[in-house]
Each structure stands twice: as C-alpha cells, then as structure tokens.
Design goal:
With 298 residues, the protein is α/β, with parallel strands linked by helices. The chain has nine helices and eleven strands.
Length: 298
C-alpha cells in the first residue's frame, strides 16, 4: 500500500456517517451532459488530436464552458500551455474556492485530446474522452450551485493520448503546494458499457477511499466495481490515464472508467454509440462521488 500512511494522514473518512447519508446530490443536467459530448465528438472537431485545429477548437469550447460555469482561473486565464517537443499543447484549469477550508484542494480531471484523423479516417473520441470532460463539467456545475467545503480544481488535460503529458506538466508545476492536494479524481471513458458497470481504481492504494465510493454507489443504479489497480488476474490501470502522474507524486486518486469496448480507439467511437441512459446515471454517480469526497477529506 504505497500511499497508506499518506492517505490516513490526509483523509478522515467517517464511513458510518457516509453510509447513513442516503440523500444523493441533485441530479446532473442530462441534456447539457449529452450536448457537451455531442459537441466535442462532432466531425468539425476532427478528433481533437494535440496540436491540431480541431484540438484548439475543443480547447476554446472548454474555456467557454469554464467561463459559463464561473470557474476561477489560476492567474490571468484558464490556459496553461506546455510543449511536447515542437508541438504546442494546452491544459485548461479552473477552480471553485472552498467555503470552509479553501487551502485544501481536490482535483477533478479529464483529458480532452484524442487521436484525430489517421489515414483519412476520423476518430471522434466520444467515449474517449468527450464523456469524461462532460462528466467533469457536470461536477463543476454541481459545485457551483452547492459550494464545496474544499477548493475544487477542474483540469481538462491535453496530450493524454501521447503519454499523459498534460497531467505530467500540471503535477510538475502545481499552482499550490503539493501538501495542499488531498485527492485526485479522474474520469476517462465513462459512457460506453453494455453491462451497466464502471470501475473505480485507486482504492487498493488508499483503502480509506472505499467508503467514499461505496456510499455513493449505494445511491445509484450503476454497478460500481473496485479494481484494475494491481489486483491479481486483471489489467492494471494505475498508469493508464491522467491519474498516473498524481499517483507517482504520492497523491491519493480515484479513477473511473469502463473496460475496453469494440469502439475503443476506433472510428466507431461516436456519439451515437455511447449508452446514453447509462452515461446519464454514471454522471450522477460521479457528481455524488465528488460531493461525498468533499465531505470526507480533511
């Protein structure tokens, strides 16, 4: 348990109290959620490959949504540019200031880049990862209407598909001290599953997070499974997405994602192929997880 002592030091999880709280947070706006995915996966965004015009169009859309939600920037604006060799890449980062302990931070993240156009074929990336961005925006909308106790950062990372580069850049230049960062929650591929199940990874490293996930899961119809984080006989997702650099830095994390499906990294990853009722319920679950974590973190 690499982060057990750190987790126990930075998290105080009242498991019984969480379990007794049966009221789920207000529902996510299902239509807005679907509209955000439809927009980011549209052909005009050209698959959002880092450094392309379609990627920049997606970035502008995310900046507009951050503005609509009233997120605060760190510094002059949301854009946090970085380089991947000769390629210009940009993370977009905003936050909501905590009402009780603003000096403590949670990060909610999702990558907005995808594979672009390859050999004349468009890779729209609806599930991977327009869905995660839309869910992140739903969490931001919830916290804007229901101010969190802690400051919550919303990070739309670039360059995930070419080595988690945006997350590495963010962790290397945090806009606050690392000691102030209590938890990272990452969404990547949360809309396409025919078995009504989603995985939560990270609890094997930080067992104190299990009550956060199970308390939220009990209030929703999605089958939430713990795993894909160094369990025997399963694929290890610890470094599979943008939570990886946070884990390497010793930060507790939760990662939510579905298992691979036939449209994964294929041109068929379109808006029409996501499971809309499943995704809407997953988004409600993820809002609940973030709200429950905000109550639990010290």
């Amino acid at each position: 348990m690499k982060h057990a002592s750190l987790a126990l030091a930075c998290l105080l999880l009242a498991a019984s109290a969480l379990a007794q709280d049966q009221a789920a947070p207000s529902s996510a706006d299902g239509q807005r959620l679907l509209d955000d995915v439809r927009t980011l996966a549209a052909p005009s965004f050209e698959g959002r490959a880092t450094g392309t015009a379609g990627n920049r169009k997606a970035a502008a859309f995310i900046a507009q949504r951050f503005t609509e939600l009233g997120l605060l920037p760190f510094g002059a604006g949301y854009a946090q540019p970085f380089k991947i060799g000769a390629i210009d890449a940009v993370n977009y980062v905003g936050f909501i200031k905590g009402a009780a302990t603003p000096e403590r931070f949670l990060v909610v993240s999702a990558h907005y880049d995808h594979l672009g156009i390859k050999n004349g074929l468009l890779y729209p990336g609806a599930d991977d990862n327009a869905s995660g961005v839309a869910a992140m925006l739903a969490v931001a909308a919830y916290f804007k209407a229901h101010p969190p106790a802690h400051s919550v950062v919303f990070a739309a990372f670039d360059g995930e598909e070419i080595g988690l580069r945006g997350a590495h850049a963010f962790v290397a230049a945090l806009p606050f001290k690392k000691s102030q960062l209590a938890l990272e929650i990452n969404f990547d591929m949360v809309s396409h599953n025919d078995r009504n199940e989603i995985y939560a990874a990270g609890t094997r490293y930080t067992r104190a997070l299990i009550p956060v996930v199970t308390a939220a899961a009990a209030r929703h119809t999605v089958n939430v499974k713990l795993g894909h984080d160094e369990g025997e006989g399963e694929e290890n997702w610890t470094d599979a997405s943008d939570h990886g650099p946070f884990h390497e830095a010793g930060v507790p994390f939760l990662y939510f994602g579905v298992e691979d499906h036939p449209d994964y990294h294929k041109p068929g990853d379109t808006f029409e192929h996501i499971n809309q009722p499943f995704f809407t319920e997953v988004a409600k679950l993820l809002v609940d997880v973030a709200a429950t974590a905000d109550k639990a973190v010290q």
